[in-house]
Amino acid sequence: MSLISWLLLATLSALWGGAFLFAKVAVSEIPPFVLVFLRVAIAASLLHVVLRLSAHRLPTDIRSLGAYAVMGILNNVLPFSLIFWGQTGIAAGLASILNATTPMFTFVVAALVLRLEEVAGNRIAGVLLGFAGVAAMLSASLAGLATDPLWAQAACLGAALSYAFAGAFGRRFRGTPPLVTATGQLTASTLIMTPVALMTAGDWSPMNVSLLVWGNVLALGVFATAFAYLLFFRLLARAGATNTSLVTLLIPVSALLFGHLLLGERLYPVQFAGLAVLLLGLALLDGRIVTVFRRKRAG
User: Fold this and answer.
1) Rg (CA), the chain
2) What percent of the chain has pLDDT over 90?
3) Can you tell me the distance from the alpha carbon of 158 to that of 212, in angstroms, rounded to the nearest whole number?
4) In the chain, where are the structural domains located?
5) Mean per-residue pLDDT for 274-287?
């Protein structure tokens, strides 16, 4: 990749890693489902402005609107809700690590369940290693070595599974401008989350939210969602899907660094060990290591 592509990749990983930090701060004063609504509503509003300035338009036929609704549920409503709910109980860094299992779930859904992708030995090994790393992290709580609640960790894993189904469903949007797809799904997510947020807000009032938390909400909607989507599609066009997928390996690093420096978070040794095994599994699943090894042998 070019230097610009590497800079885009680093920026994207920082934004999506920072999303876990922004959410962790925000859920301390805002109910999780209300926060999901705020995130998608802010991002959708900004993307509508960008879409208006572009040559593209959002389709309004029933079939397209239904597809955007399904994509919004799978790619925004469910994962954002599960992650924010989970982050009421676990640290931002751990949530980002568990979310990094998305490529493994994506392979399981696309290759083993839906038969849409090739099944290769390195991918099977990568998935098995990745799940072994997750098991190590969960075992810390089961054995009493860590105090992170299992329900919160399971919620973040559920979000990764939802992203996997979103990846499979998103294949039908090939040929559709990415800006249109992003705007459509975020708009649908906003409409879906509006009644959910109203019903779950309870006695919460925006007047009781501190300026610091509102700043994190804006960062979550503007930078970690709207701007990150635009950056992601720009990187995808410049570097391709394979190189762009490297962001999965970098997000936990960014989230862990931000969580440690800004929130004083830390992982237990067994969780670090699980992270190392998970990252090795993701590297095998990606296939880059195998390709380099084969080239060296051939050379």
Assistant:
1) 19
2) 62
3) 29
4) 3-298
5) 85
